[in-house]
Amino acid sequence: RFTPTMPGSGEPGITLLLEDTTQRRRAERAMQQRDRLLHTIFQIPSIPRFFIDRNHKVVFWDRALEIMTGIKSEEIVGTDQHWRCFYNERRPCLADLLVDGDVAQIPDLYGPACTTSPTTDRVYEFTAFFPHAGNSGRWLHVTASVIRDMAGNLTGAMETLEDVTEKKQREFVVEA
Asked: Is 13 domain-assigned?
């Protein structure tokens, strides 16, 4: 960066300021590579999951969830319509309650079956039948947790969905 100057002698001059940005550029490239890798990893169809921000807008809807619900990422990212894959009408998903810090409402909406995970008290999980999921309903094991940044500030929540319909159907056959 060049800055015109007028030293004490009154003669015009130029001050040249140089900044070595090598480290910053390396760090930026490393972060971009990490972001691409994470995006690739999250697109591998495994356990369906979505992320919402603290305003309840979907920021990520993975390929496995697209396959499970038939709802494309492009249709849902940027909206607060994630409830559509579970319910006929708008109601909070588990991730929404965690973003709002409204854990007191969890038993009212999900019953006593919704508990904290045995691995951590900040992860909630339950298994339930969702009659509006899929063609004839699905049994889903739902897990949700808040996501915080490095400073501990809430940035959103993640919800994972495991289709356990076949397992539940086998259990019903054994019980019968």
From this structure: no
